[in-house]
TrEMBL record:
The keyword Transferase applies. Gene3D superfamilies: Aspartate Aminotransferase, domain 1, Type I PLP-dependent aspartate aminotransferase-like (Major domain). The modification N6-(pyridoxal phosphate)lysine is found at residue 265. One of its GO terms (biological process) is L-histidine biosynthetic process. It comes from Actinacidiphila glaucinigra. This is Aromatic amino acid aminotransferase.
Amino acid sequence: MRATARATGAQCVAPPAPFPVSPRREPVCRKASPGRAGARMVWGMSPKLRRELDGIPTYKPGRPPAVEEGVTAYKLSSNENPYAPLPGVLEAATAAAENFNRYPDMACTALHAELAHRFGVPEEHIATGTGSVGVAQQLLQSTAGPGDEVIYAWRSFEAYPIITQITGAASVRVPLDAGETHDLDAMAAAITDRTRLIFVCNPNNPTGTVVRREALERFLDRVPPDVLVVLDEAYKEFIRDPEVPDGVEVYRDRPNVAVLRTFSKAYGLAGLRVGFAIAHEPVAAALRKTAVPFGVSQLAQDAAVASLRAEAALLERVDALVGERTRVFDRLTAQGWTVPETHANFVWLRLGERTTDFAAACERAGVTVRPFAGEGVRITVGEEAANDVLIRTAEAFRKEL
Ligand SMILES: *Cc1c(COP(=O)(O)O)cnc(C)c1O
């Protein structure tokens, strides 16, 4: 086609339009005609999909706030930062938006340089992706496949089973201990020749509990050097306990440790999808190979760089949330609830059979929380007014128990 076009002198590329063009399109969502549907039934054929996909649980995103007349609604279901973007960050993203007809910098050069400087690590040890969930998926693609095993605590981050199953590897779930904390001894005991990757979610989502330095080091000493340990530190910035190790310090002399961080929580960029790993070669190199080309948008890259430069202002907001966390924790405890000590921007109530009732009561009062039916409710610490509603609702619910 192209050769013909050139031979005839026709132009393949449209000349720049004198004004912005919005291409008119035919509607793309047409209902299938009866004839087509009939053909499908006759043949009963569909593309062959990988067996590993059967039964993959679907990720349940935190519900948006319910809209009810006369009730202010708050979303406390996704552990987001409730505050609007900082001015400098918003400007960086807005400026980047002016060029979104262009592909982003695939190597994320500026962001990697900023992160390397911020953490004092070589640039080659940084890998970015579409949220840290995206990077976690790349870590799995890089290490595990059918016949392999991936260990994680349970209950923990609900993306782990999903992204593990996609690779075809088997999930090995090790129950949290009585204090809702990772049982690192049991996790070490679960390691076999087939183990390829172990997630340690610190603090743990959804319980907010942590593993401390000594216990983590002891565990890491027991993990064979050819098994990758991923320290998922999505809530790192909310930790105030000095005994909780910084994964970036832990990784330095351990080639089989990778640290996962995100801009989605404390940094308030959940909607822009950017997270990163810090890992030694060859793990970092594997992350570059498994990355979706151009996966991190320029908006996300520029906003992330601006966020790192505005870190002081950002972390002030995190401090405010930590203050609110203490208030929520203290009030709930005073009401008689058993709340595991939380080091993240959420609290966990193990409500068992009352879980869905509690979530419904919260929703009626104007706060949407994250129920795990039959187990418990994870409640994000939000702005003061939202937390007030939660505290009042929890108190009323408790009285009826
Ligand atoms: C929210 C969260 C993430 C990060 O998700 P992004 O993909 O970066 O938005 C990762 N791990 C845990 C445990 C989380 O709770």
